[in-house]
Amino acid sequence: MTIGAVDIGGTKIAVGMVDEGGNVLSKAEFPSDGGDYGGCVDLIGRELRETARAAAVEISGIGIGSTGPVNPFTGEFGAVDFLPGWHGRNIVEDLERLFHVQAAMENDADAAVLGEAAWGIGKNKPKLIYVTIGTGIGGGMVLDGHLYRGVDGAHPEFGHHVIDPSGPVCSCGFRGCWESLATGPAMVAWVETQIPLNHPRRQDLTGRRICELAQQGEDWACAAVEREAHYLGLGIANLISLFTPDAIVLGGSVMKSASLFLDRIRQVIASGCKFVPYEKTELLLASLGEDANLIGAARVWHFRFGQGTKISV
User: Fold this and answer.
1) 218 and 127 inside one domain
2) Total of domains in the chain
3) All residues at 6 or more sequence positions from 77 whose CB lies less than 8 Å from its CB, including other chains
4) Is the dihedral of CA 140, 146, 148, 150 positive or negative?
5) In this structure, are residues 65 and 106 in contact, taking their beta carbons and an 8 Å threshold?
6) Closest Cα to residue 51, out of 89, 13, 93, 105?
7) Fewer CB within 10 Å, N- or C-terminus of the chain?
């Protein structure tokens, strides 16, 4: 059985074929650019057929992981900032009509936790939290084999719990949300307050570049990494105190430099989680690599249709 996987991001869409073991057999990607919905669906359909042809397989079902708010039960998009004009459109129905197979969609962070729980480092962890740290912060939870859903099927927004109410204004309306303090752009914004306007390092500054310069010993970059690790530790400590999971899996572009952050994160957790057995919560790094989003999207189909909405744990 081969699942056609679709990963919808703010800037690109990836598609591919994923087998029953979570292996990507073929893949392709193209810009989304907030593009016309109908044109993007046509292109998704075309690329799914091409990747199926390249892998010499037939599509048994379609799994979709998407950025932003989505309705996993109806298959409709919510108000996705990056994709104006997609609100209320139903990609599940449209792809089912094109391919005559069952399709299912989840938020991309929920798709990622499903992938890690079934085929990745989160396997056999009954209470698992996945956190992705990059341009934003997102996450999902699997509790005793079930994907956690809030009221009306809502997806938990880990990135928007408040860490420092005097911190930067966040897009959600609060100040000092985790996402406003502990992402790649948050690192850049803080560094820009610390070095002069004419400083040569201000050109093309990114979170990745800050991490590279910290590894080279640049003082202000090391300070930025220390600050980032502190706020990452506070947010993760909150998740441990609230949920006491077996493991928290950390992914996303910022965690490609995990060696800079993990020791300090663990120190922060140990300094304030004294009423829960925090030392028993494992901190793990996401294991599915560059294809994690496609693998997670494929797992969405298996979770919905293959195992009765439960993962073996």
Assistant:
1) yes
2) 2
3) 66, 68, 69, 70, 71, 83, 86, 87, 88, 89, 90, 91
4) positive
5) yes
6) 13
7) N
Which residues form the domain of 227? 121-287
| Segment 149-159, tens digit of pLDDT | 988 888 889 99
Report pLDDT digits (tens) over 5-43: 999 987 789 999 999 999 999 999 998 876 789 999 999
* Whether residue 72 sits in one domain with residue 38: yes
- With contact defined as beta carbons under 8 Å apart, do 79 and 69 qualify? yes
Q: Please give the mean pLDDT across all residues of the chain.
A: 92
Residues 196 and 183: beta-carbon distance below 8 Å = no
**CB distance 281 to 240 below 8 Å:** yes
Residue owning tokens 């829960």: 276
Taken as a whole, the chain contains a residue count of 313
Q: Summarize the confidence of residues 279-303 as an average pLDDT.
A: 95
d(CA 217, CA 126) in angstroms, rounded, equals: 40
- The per-residue pLDDT for 280 is 97
Contact 134, 252 (CB under 8 A): yes
Collect all residues with Cβ–Cβ distance below 8 Å to 96 and sequence separation of at least 6: 62, 102, 103
β-strand pairing of 146-147 with 137-143? antiparallel
Mean pLDDT across 273-300? 95
And the tokens for 285? 């790094």
